[in-house]
Amino acid sequence: MNNVFGDRRAVAVLLGPALLVYTLVMLVPVLWSLGLTMFDGNPLFGFDFVGPQNIRTLFEDPRIGDALWFTVKYAVVMTIGQVLAGYLLSLLYIFALRRASALIRTLVFFPVVLPTVAVALLFQKLFEVAPQNGLVNELLNTVGIASIDWFGSGDTAFIVLALMDIWRSMGFYAALLYAGLLDIPDEIFESARLDGARGWRLVRHIVLPLSMPVLLSSVIFSINGTLKVFDSIVALTNGGPAEATTPLTLYMFQTSFSYGDYGYGSTIALVLTVLCLGVTVAIFRSSRRDLTRS
Amino acid sequence: MPPVAATSLGADAVPHEAAPHRRPGPTSAGLPAPVRPVRRSIAAWFRRLPVRIAIALLLLVDVYPLVWLLLGSFKTQNEFLTEPSWSLPRSLSFDNYVEAWTGGNMAIYVRNSILATAPSLFLIIVLGVAAGFALEVLVWRGRHQTLLVFLVGIMVPGQMILLPLFTAYFQLGLTGTLWPLIITYTATGLPLTVFMMATYFRAVPREVFEAAALDGAGALRAFWSIGFPMVRNAVFTVALVQFFFIWNDLLISLTFAIRNQLRTIQVGLLSFTGEYGQTAYGPLFAAICINVFSTLLLYLFLNQRVMRGLTSGSVKG
């Protein structure tokens, strides 16, 4: 029996191609990118070895600080927003809608599969101020508030960005957390109800503690996704106005492809990777839970 | 191991059961029935009013922007400039769609997207399912470590591999073709696929494969005749998940589709405003609609599977 499943030739045939592609197109480039941080230039004009110059630039470049700060700010705000909105929705599904929730869940999930570019262009038009007021400004006008130039300043652009990404992803986190809430045995709710727990107290003392593991995984997924945010920002603001909404991902992209500086570009990519891995490890450490068992 | 607690990966390997239904929740029980049923139903209606309002708002916020988009795609430029944006279109004309499809090159962009997505999906599935089987069902030293190596790929941001790949494709002379997209999509789709497939194979009882071995099947035969058919359902789900990742991708296509003729639908849509000038509303709305409602069509028929698949692939973040 073990001879059959320990067949080395079969392992090579089945795993070989995938491992080869994965190694050549992902693992090797990661190492190559590490090497590129020591160089200056791009494939069109060739590379020059500069040693740790790029790392030094990192500490003198004011834009990297802004991009890093924006990335962290975006990740924190979005993670809280996405998971909170998703959690509220999942509570709504479970306690208010119950069996009837299937249709609502399906509808609220729909924006998740929409192409980010399409959603971003839609939101551009929704929040437009010139030459034509979009729906949002028209709404503001009817209640007596003057039109706002949403993409004119970094703060308002950030609000639109936050609204858009929460609109896009709340259905996803709602579905994820809903699945987690379904796993809580009904008996627990029954007995809590017999003990007199209702409404907010039921949520606070029974539901919240029991859904902690799935909440924590949602937070990890969300942080991991939001630290890498690219599509929505490129399509909605393209980093503007005046770099006010430029995260590390976009800064890396611009440095590499607009300014042709591959060396510094891969240095920024390295910062991003370290940030992603660091945050994930930190959350795992601090939670001290075995998330693989639930 | 990465966080997989919330997900129910195993669900797809076995035939589907109906989703578990929760019994009526805590809020509905416990009140003594009032004397007159009519009054009770009115009271109940009002007690549920906040919930009803919340649901109505939710639906409004979720659905209305899309309705607004669809209505806008039928308007003329004149209607956009002179009427409020919530007004209905005066006629149901498809001129904007024709303009976006031909004049706006959406036809080329959609074709490119299909040409890049189909081969990538095929390769991801063929390579990923086989690798998942080799890592989960076959027994050999180092398989757990190999699975971990694949998992690292889920966490690494795409930016980390773009520059070396661009250099390599440039030197191989591939930059004028769709190959860079196909190769990169295949490689970036593999880690999640391998991980998900390994989990699905874990849910298949080992006895099934042992019985096949007793009947004289080799490892390859066990994969092809037993393993693959048993996870067929899961394969379809994984393919669906990967389809959305690839079809909606912007980072990779923006990097490698450098010529106009190679643009995918997302890159094309992004440059749509730039080429047409900011003010060509109708064709732009129609182009967004083409993009949005092509995924809607898929979602309409397969929504339960899409939801299950995407939530179980959430490790990707």
Topology:
The complex is a heterodimer of chains A (294) and B (317).
Chain A: H1 2-5, H2 8-36, E1 39-42, E2 46-49, H3 53-60, H4 62-97, H5 101-113, H6 116-126, H7 135-142, H8 154-182, H9 186-194, H10 199-210, H11 212-227, H12 231-236, H13 248-258, H14 262-287
Antiparallel strand pairs in A: 1-2
Helix pairs in contact in A: 3-14, 4-8, 4-11, 5-8, 11-14, 13-14
Chain B: H1 37-47, H2 49-72, H3 77-82, H4 95-103, H5 106-136, H6 143-155, H7 159-172, H8 179-202, H9 206-214, H10 219-230, H11 232-247, H12 251-256, H13 265-276, H14 281-312
Helix pairs in contact in B: 4-14, 5-8, 5-11, 5-13, 6-8, 8-11, 9-10, 11-14, 13-14
3D architecture notes:
- The complex is a heterodimer of chains A (294) and B (317).
- With 294 residues, chain A is mainly alpha-helical.
- Chain A has two domains: 1-30, no CATH class; 37-293, MetI-like fold, CATH 1.10.3720.10.
- Chain A has 14 helices and two strands, in the order H-H-E-E-H-H-H-H-H-H-H-H-H-H-H-H.
- Chain A has a two-stranded antiparallel sheet with strand order 1-2.
- Chain A is globular, with a radius of gyration of 24 Å.
- The model of chain A has no long low-confidence stretch (mean pLDDT 85).
- Chain B is mainly alpha-helical and 317 residues long.
- Chain B is built from 14 helices and no strands.
- In chain B, helix 6 crosses helix 8, helix 8 (179-202) runs antiparallel to helix 11 and helix 11 (232-247) runs antiparallel to helix 14.
- The radius of gyration of chain B is 25 Å and the shape is flat.
- Chain B starts with 36 loop residues before the first helix and ends in a 5-residue tail after the last helix.
- Classes of the chains: A mainly alpha (294), B mainly alpha (317).
